[in-house]
Amino acid sequence: MVKGFLNRLKSNRGMSGVLVALLLVIVGVGLIAGLNTYMQGASTTIQTSANTAITAATTAATPAAE
Known about the structure:
Blueprint: H1 2-10, H2 12-61
C-alpha cells in the first residue's frame, strides 16, 4: 500500500498534482493569516476610535464645575 502510494507520488502526473495541491494550501494559509492580521489591526483601530468618541461625548455632556 505504501509502495503503491510512493510510486504514484514519484510519477510525473502524481508529483505535479501534489505540488499544485501544496501550493494551493500554502496560498490559502497565507491568505487566512494575512486576513487575520488585517482584521486584528482594524479591530484595534475601531476600538481606539470608539474610546476617543465616548470620552469626548462624556466630557461634553458633563456640566462644567463652577
